[in-house]
Amino acid sequence: MKRLFLFVSLLVLSKFSAQAWATEDQYIQKFAKYAVEEMEKYKIPASITLAQGLLETGGGQSRLAQEGKNHFGIKCKEEWTGKTMKHTDDAPNECFRVYDDPRQSYEDHSIFLSTRKYYANLFNLNMKDYKAWAHGLKKAGYATNPRYASILISKIEKYRLYEYDDTSSKEVLYAVLKMYPDLKDDRTFMAQLEPSKMVSKKTKDQVTVEVPYKQTSYAQQQKRVERIKTKAEILNSILIKTHPNDGLRYIVIPEDTNVKFIADKFRVSESRLIKWNELQSDVLKKNDIVFLESKNSSGNTAIYKAESGEDMHDIAQKFGIKLNKLYAKNRMDEGQKPSAGQLIYLIDKKPRN
């Protein structure tokens, strides 16, 4: 009887073990492409993103992942204006973000890491050094578990997730197929690899392309469609940069757009973007600098020589300084413009004549 009980117990345990393995493999097969897409946009190793997703969701089985499409356990924070759900984590009934699609969760994770100062040092690391990233995340306080780094590394090495750090969004599905050859019998997966069966991707943050009608030739109209599509794609590929002034996070606008588009893409309120960047309207022009956090009171260099046509707002954006502080440092009235060649003080106050 005891032997029978032991045999059944081992059978059950082995079954659960197999299910856990299958669940994590299936998670990788489904979400590797998202991790690689984020790596290309935000320079976060795909192996790290996937390992974090595996760990945080228990292979996609957690309540947050199932009900809230939240794959990284990101809590609401004060800037979140989207849907929420209550979940017990470090404390009872904490507020967590809810997404319409897992891809949104993946991008929000990238934005979360790339826009917070305490993670800034991660982006100085080699993008293929997953061990350094794992330890860097732990050191920056991403998780309270003292074994967090070693757990991530274990996941990466167990499933060879480091191989996704060497692929691209165009090749990632082939990398998945190489890792899991049995997927050749999965018609849904294989359809993604066959152009004749492929369906164009439509994600939440893609721009709807509307082409104004003009009575013209079909060829000319098609050229206009492609030009507008290209603009939409350019806007969707904006990368967050780190400013020399204390690592402030900012972007450079690649094509004319508006504050709402940037606010929606980076999940920051329009009012904050307008306040942080001292904007007079919601129109953003190509090559405008837009900060995703409040600027500093001083610059990182002492003096700057104003160029022809620049105003004080241009200089404030160039050096990541609050506009009112820049006026004060240079003993200038609000709205006053500098002359070409004028020395603009960025750290100390301009000496009195």
From TrEMBL:
Transmembrane segments: none
SMART domains in the record: LYZ2
Ranges for domain LysM: 302-346
Provenance organism: Chryseobacterium vrystaatense
CDD domains: LysM
Database matches in PANTHER family: PEPTIDOGLYCAN HYDROLASE FLGJ
Protein name per Swiss-Prot or TrEMBL: Peptidoglycan hydrolase
Residues making up the signal peptide according to the UniProt record: 1-20
Alphabetized Pfam families for the sequence: Glucosaminidase, LysM
UniProt keyword terms in alphabetical order: Antimicrobial, Bacteriolytic enzyme, Hydrolase, Signal
Domain of life: Bacteria
Gene3D superfamilies: 1.10.530.10
Record-linked InterPro entries: Glycosyl_Hydrolase_73, LysM, LysM_dom_sf, MGlyc_endo_b_GlcNAc-like_dom
